[in-house]
Write a structure and sequence with these properties.
Blueprint: H1 6-25, H2 29-44, H3 56-65, H4 76-80, E1 91-95, H5 101-113, E2 118-119, H6 127-136, E3 141-148, E4 151-159, E5 165-174, E6 192-196, H7 201-211, E7 223-230, E8 233-243, E9 249-253, E10 257-267, E11 276-280
Parallel strand pairs: 1-2, 1-3, 6-7
Antiparallel strand pairs: 3-4, 4-5, 5-10, 7-8, 8-9, 8-10, 10-11
Helix pairs in contact: 2-3
Length: 294
Protein backbone atom coordinates (compact mmCIF):
# COMPACT_ATOMS: atom_id res chain seq x y z
CA UNK A 1 0.00 0.00 0.00
CA UNK A 2 1.31 3.55 -0.72
CA UNK A 3 2.69 5.45 2.23
CA UNK A 4 0.61 8.24 3.72
CA UNK A 5 2.48 11.54 3.46
CA UNK A 6 2.43 14.36 5.96
CA UNK A 7 0.92 16.66 3.33
CA UNK A 8 -2.09 14.39 2.82
CA UNK A 9 -2.60 14.10 6.57
CA UNK A 10 -2.57 17.88 6.99
CA UNK A 11 -4.94 18.30 4.05
CA UNK A 12 -7.33 15.72 5.50
CA UNK A 13 -7.21 17.39 8.93
CA UNK A 14 -7.94 20.76 7.33
CA UNK A 15 -10.90 19.37 5.38
CA UNK A 16 -12.20 17.64 8.50
CA UNK A 17 -12.03 20.87 10.54
CA UNK A 18 -13.91 22.72 7.81
CA UNK A 19 -16.51 19.95 7.67
CA UNK A 20 -17.05 19.98 11.46
CA UNK A 21 -17.28 23.77 11.39
CA UNK A 22 -20.03 23.67 8.78
CA UNK A 23 -21.80 20.95 10.74
CA UNK A 24 -21.69 23.11 13.88
CA UNK A 25 -23.26 26.00 11.96
CA UNK A 26 -26.44 23.97 11.52
CA UNK A 27 -27.09 24.28 15.25
CA UNK A 28 -26.88 28.10 15.15
CA UNK A 29 -30.05 28.83 13.25
CA UNK A 30 -30.61 32.25 14.86
CA UNK A 31 -27.23 33.56 13.67
CA UNK A 32 -28.02 32.57 10.07
CA UNK A 33 -31.40 34.33 10.33
CA UNK A 34 -29.76 37.49 11.67
CA UNK A 35 -27.23 37.54 8.83
CA UNK A 36 -30.05 37.05 6.32
CA UNK A 37 -31.83 40.10 7.75
CA UNK A 38 -28.64 42.20 7.55
CA UNK A 39 -27.97 41.02 4.00
CA UNK A 40 -31.54 41.88 2.96
CA UNK A 41 -31.38 45.31 4.59
CA UNK A 42 -28.09 46.16 2.88
CA UNK A 43 -29.37 45.00 -0.50
CA UNK A 44 -32.61 46.99 -0.30
CA UNK A 45 -31.17 50.11 1.39
CA UNK A 46 -33.50 49.86 4.39
CA UNK A 47 -32.55 50.55 7.99
CA UNK A 48 -31.10 47.80 10.15
CA UNK A 49 -33.62 46.26 12.57
CA UNK A 50 -33.24 47.72 16.04
CA UNK A 51 -32.58 44.34 17.69
CA UNK A 52 -29.53 43.81 15.44
CA UNK A 53 -27.85 47.20 15.83
CA UNK A 54 -25.70 46.09 18.77
CA UNK A 55 -24.23 43.18 16.79
CA UNK A 56 -24.25 44.89 13.40
CA UNK A 57 -20.46 45.22 13.10
CA UNK A 58 -19.88 41.51 13.69
CA UNK A 59 -22.69 40.44 11.37
CA UNK A 60 -21.54 42.89 8.67
CA UNK A 61 -17.99 41.49 8.74
CA UNK A 62 -19.32 37.93 8.45
CA UNK A 63 -21.59 38.87 5.53
CA UNK A 64 -18.72 40.60 3.72
CA UNK A 65 -16.55 37.49 4.10
CA UNK A 66 -19.13 35.25 2.38
CA UNK A 67 -19.05 34.38 -1.30
CA UNK A 68 -21.51 32.77 -3.68
CA UNK A 69 -20.70 29.30 -2.38
CA UNK A 70 -20.96 30.08 1.33
CA UNK A 71 -23.83 32.58 1.53
CA UNK A 72 -26.50 29.93 0.90
CA UNK A 73 -27.58 27.66 3.72
CA UNK A 74 -25.82 24.33 3.33
CA UNK A 75 -25.72 21.37 5.66
CA UNK A 76 -23.06 18.73 6.23
CA UNK A 77 -24.74 16.39 3.74
CA UNK A 78 -24.27 18.99 0.99
CA UNK A 79 -20.56 19.21 1.82
CA UNK A 80 -20.04 15.45 1.45
CA UNK A 81 -21.01 15.43 -2.22
CA UNK A 82 -20.57 19.14 -2.90
CA UNK A 83 -17.96 18.55 -5.60
CA UNK A 84 -19.77 15.68 -7.34
CA UNK A 85 -19.65 16.08 -11.10
CA UNK A 86 -16.61 18.39 -11.12
CA UNK A 87 -14.22 15.44 -11.47
CA UNK A 88 -14.75 11.78 -12.32
CA UNK A 89 -15.01 9.56 -9.22
CA UNK A 90 -12.24 7.03 -8.57
CA UNK A 91 -13.33 4.01 -6.57
CA UNK A 92 -11.15 1.33 -4.99
CA UNK A 93 -12.69 -2.14 -4.78
CA UNK A 94 -11.50 -4.83 -2.39
CA UNK A 95 -12.89 -7.82 -0.51
CA UNK A 96 -12.90 -9.29 2.95
CA UNK A 97 -9.87 -11.28 3.98
CA UNK A 98 -9.23 -14.69 2.40
CA UNK A 99 -11.91 -14.35 -0.31
CA UNK A 100 -13.28 -17.34 -2.16
CA UNK A 101 -12.91 -17.74 -5.91
CA UNK A 102 -16.55 -16.70 -6.41
CA UNK A 103 -16.08 -13.47 -4.43
CA UNK A 104 -12.91 -12.73 -6.41
CA UNK A 105 -14.84 -13.15 -9.65
CA UNK A 106 -17.64 -10.94 -8.32
CA UNK A 107 -15.08 -8.25 -7.41
CA UNK A 108 -13.64 -8.39 -10.94
CA UNK A 109 -17.09 -7.86 -12.43
CA UNK A 110 -17.84 -4.96 -10.08
CA UNK A 111 -14.52 -3.44 -11.13
CA UNK A 112 -15.56 -3.65 -14.80
CA UNK A 113 -18.99 -2.31 -13.86
CA UNK A 114 -17.76 0.94 -12.25
CA UNK A 115 -15.62 3.11 -14.58
CA UNK A 116 -12.26 4.42 -13.36
CA UNK A 117 -12.24 1.92 -10.49
CA UNK A 118 -9.28 -0.10 -9.23
CA UNK A 119 -9.39 -3.55 -7.66
CA UNK A 120 -6.78 -4.42 -5.03
CA UNK A 121 -6.12 -7.55 -3.04
CA UNK A 122 -7.04 -7.21 0.63
CA UNK A 123 -4.15 -9.23 2.02
CA UNK A 124 -3.56 -8.49 5.71
CA UNK A 125 -4.39 -4.78 5.47
CA UNK A 126 -6.62 -3.38 8.17
CA UNK A 127 -9.61 -1.18 7.34
CA UNK A 128 -7.97 1.98 8.69
CA UNK A 129 -4.89 1.30 6.54
CA UNK A 130 -7.09 0.94 3.45
CA UNK A 131 -8.87 4.21 4.20
CA UNK A 132 -5.62 6.13 4.77
CA UNK A 133 -4.07 4.74 1.58
CA UNK A 134 -7.14 5.65 -0.49
CA UNK A 135 -7.15 9.17 0.93
CA UNK A 136 -3.46 9.60 0.16
CA UNK A 137 -4.08 9.04 -3.57
CA UNK A 138 -7.32 11.11 -3.64
CA UNK A 139 -9.75 8.24 -4.26
CA UNK A 140 -13.41 9.16 -3.99
CA UNK A 141 -14.84 5.89 -2.67
CA UNK A 142 -13.80 2.64 -1.01
CA UNK A 143 -15.96 -0.42 -1.76
CA UNK A 144 -15.58 -3.57 0.34
CA UNK A 145 -17.32 -6.78 -0.77
CA UNK A 146 -18.19 -9.43 1.80
CA UNK A 147 -19.32 -13.05 1.65
CA UNK A 148 -20.71 -15.96 3.65
CA UNK A 149 -19.68 -19.48 2.63
CA UNK A 150 -18.60 -18.36 -0.81
CA UNK A 151 -21.74 -16.36 -1.60
CA UNK A 152 -21.53 -12.53 -1.84
CA UNK A 153 -23.82 -11.16 0.86
CA UNK A 154 -22.62 -7.63 1.69
CA UNK A 155 -21.19 -4.45 0.22
CA UNK A 156 -19.88 -1.39 2.04
CA UNK A 157 -19.63 1.92 0.17
CA UNK A 158 -17.43 4.44 1.98
CA UNK A 159 -17.23 7.92 0.47
CA UNK A 160 -13.93 9.68 1.02
CA UNK A 161 -12.60 11.74 2.68
CA UNK A 162 -15.53 12.71 4.95
CA UNK A 163 -18.09 9.94 4.54
CA UNK A 164 -20.83 8.81 4.62
CA UNK A 165 -20.55 5.02 4.78
CA UNK A 166 -23.47 2.94 3.50
CA UNK A 167 -23.89 -0.74 4.39
CA UNK A 168 -25.93 -2.95 2.06
CA UNK A 169 -26.80 -6.62 2.17
CA UNK A 170 -26.63 -8.56 -1.11
CA UNK A 171 -28.95 -11.40 -2.09
CA UNK A 172 -29.52 -13.35 -5.29
CA UNK A 173 -26.19 -12.45 -6.88
CA UNK A 174 -25.91 -13.83 -10.43
CA UNK A 175 -22.54 -13.46 -12.12
CA UNK A 176 -22.18 -12.76 -15.84
CA UNK A 177 -21.44 -16.35 -16.90
CA UNK A 178 -24.49 -17.59 -14.93
CA UNK A 179 -27.03 -15.36 -16.67
CA UNK A 180 -29.55 -17.46 -18.63
CA UNK A 181 -28.97 -17.18 -22.35
CA UNK A 182 -25.49 -15.72 -21.91
CA UNK A 183 -24.43 -12.13 -21.29
CA UNK A 184 -23.54 -9.40 -23.76
CA UNK A 185 -19.98 -8.08 -24.01
CA UNK A 186 -18.98 -5.58 -21.31
CA UNK A 187 -18.64 -2.03 -22.58
CA UNK A 188 -16.22 0.47 -21.03
CA UNK A 189 -18.38 3.50 -21.84
CA UNK A 190 -19.65 5.61 -18.96
CA UNK A 191 -23.17 4.32 -18.22
CA UNK A 192 -26.41 6.19 -17.77
CA UNK A 193 -27.67 5.65 -14.20
CA UNK A 194 -31.41 5.10 -13.68
CA UNK A 195 -32.77 5.49 -10.12
CA UNK A 196 -36.34 4.23 -9.89
CA UNK A 197 -38.73 4.81 -6.99
CA UNK A 198 -36.35 6.53 -4.57
CA UNK A 199 -38.98 8.98 -3.31
CA UNK A 200 -38.34 9.64 0.39
CA UNK A 201 -35.54 11.78 1.82
CA UNK A 202 -33.67 8.64 2.84
CA UNK A 203 -34.30 7.16 -0.61
CA UNK A 204 -32.84 10.24 -2.29
CA UNK A 205 -29.87 10.06 0.06
CA UNK A 206 -29.32 6.38 -0.82
CA UNK A 207 -29.71 7.09 -4.54
CA UNK A 208 -27.18 9.91 -4.29
CA UNK A 209 -24.63 7.58 -2.66
CA UNK A 210 -25.07 5.03 -5.45
CA UNK A 211 -25.12 7.40 -8.43
CA UNK A 212 -21.98 9.26 -7.29
CA UNK A 213 -19.98 6.07 -7.87
CA UNK A 214 -20.38 6.65 -11.62
CA UNK A 215 -19.00 9.52 -13.74
CA UNK A 216 -21.14 11.72 -15.97
CA UNK A 217 -21.85 9.81 -19.22
CA UNK A 218 -21.94 11.06 -22.78
CA UNK A 219 -25.44 11.66 -24.20
CA UNK A 220 -25.06 8.96 -26.87
CA UNK A 221 -23.84 6.23 -24.49
CA UNK A 222 -25.70 2.94 -24.97
CA UNK A 223 -24.88 1.48 -21.57
CA UNK A 224 -27.49 1.57 -18.77
CA UNK A 225 -27.19 0.83 -15.05
CA UNK A 226 -30.48 0.56 -13.14
CA UNK A 227 -31.19 0.72 -9.41
CA UNK A 228 -34.90 0.01 -8.92
CA UNK A 229 -36.42 0.19 -5.45
CA UNK A 230 -39.37 -2.06 -4.62
CA UNK A 231 -40.32 -2.40 -0.98
CA UNK A 232 -36.88 -1.24 0.24
CA UNK A 233 -35.19 -3.93 -1.84
CA UNK A 234 -33.03 -2.42 -4.58
CA UNK A 235 -32.77 -4.48 -7.76
CA UNK A 236 -29.59 -3.88 -9.76
CA UNK A 237 -29.47 -4.55 -13.51
CA UNK A 238 -26.87 -3.75 -16.16
CA UNK A 239 -27.88 -3.49 -19.84
CA UNK A 240 -26.75 -2.40 -23.26
CA UNK A 241 -29.34 -1.17 -25.74
CA UNK A 242 -29.40 -0.94 -29.51
CA UNK A 243 -31.87 0.64 -31.89
CA UNK A 244 -33.56 -1.92 -34.13
CA UNK A 245 -35.92 0.49 -35.86
CA UNK A 246 -37.23 4.03 -35.86
CA UNK A 247 -39.10 3.64 -32.56
CA UNK A 248 -37.79 0.26 -31.44
CA UNK A 249 -35.06 -0.49 -28.90
CA UNK A 250 -33.59 -3.86 -27.97
CA UNK A 251 -32.12 -4.47 -24.49
CA UNK A 252 -29.27 -6.90 -23.86
CA UNK A 253 -28.38 -7.80 -20.28
CA UNK A 254 -24.69 -7.58 -19.49
CA UNK A 255 -24.66 -8.53 -15.80
CA UNK A 256 -24.03 -9.05 -13.01
CA UNK A 257 -27.41 -8.82 -11.30
CA UNK A 258 -28.21 -8.76 -7.59
CA UNK A 259 -30.54 -7.35 -4.95
CA UNK A 260 -29.47 -4.79 -2.34
CA UNK A 261 -30.99 -3.78 0.96
CA UNK A 262 -29.75 -0.77 2.90
CA UNK A 263 -29.35 -1.47 6.61
CA UNK A 264 -27.10 1.35 7.86
CA UNK A 265 -25.76 4.79 6.93
CA UNK A 266 -22.96 6.12 9.11
CA UNK A 267 -21.92 9.79 9.12
CA UNK A 268 -18.21 9.26 8.69
CA UNK A 269 -15.75 6.87 7.11
CA UNK A 270 -15.75 3.16 7.80
CA UNK A 271 -12.78 3.36 10.19
CA UNK A 272 -14.59 5.84 12.48
CA UNK A 273 -16.40 3.52 14.86
CA UNK A 274 -17.76 6.37 17.00
CA UNK A 275 -19.40 8.23 14.10
CA UNK A 276 -23.11 9.00 14.34
CA UNK A 277 -25.62 6.79 12.55
CA UNK A 278 -27.91 8.54 10.11
CA UNK A 279 -30.06 5.44 9.59
CA UNK A 280 -30.17 1.92 11.02
CA UNK A 281 -32.58 -0.78 9.86
CA UNK A 282 -34.61 -2.25 12.71
CA UNK A 283 -36.71 -5.00 11.09
CA UNK A 284 -37.97 -6.54 14.34
CA UNK A 285 -39.11 -3.35 16.02
CA UNK A 286 -42.82 -3.35 16.88
CA UNK A 287 -44.61 -0.56 15.03
CA UNK A 288 -48.21 0.30 14.38
CA UNK A 289 -47.78 0.03 10.64
CA UNK A 290 -44.91 -1.23 8.49
CA UNK A 291 -43.97 1.31 5.88
CA UNK A 292 -41.23 1.57 3.31
CA UNK A 293 -38.39 3.93 4.19
CA UNK A 294 -36.89 4.40 0.70
Amino acid sequence: MPAVTGFSQRREARMRRDYLYRKSLEKNQSSREDKAKVRSALASGKTIPSELRASYDRLKSEVDAEDVKTEADRNHIDDEYGDAGHADPRAVITTSREPSSRLKQFAKEVKLLIPNSTRINRGNNRVDELVESCKSVSCSDLIILQETRGEPDGIVVCHLPLGPTAFFSISGAVLRHDIPGGSSPMSEAYPHVILNNFTSDLGKRCGNILKCLFPVPKPDAKRIVTFSNDGDFISFRHHMYSKTGKDKVSLHEVGPRFELRLFQIRLGTIDQKDADNEYVLRPYQNTANKKNVL
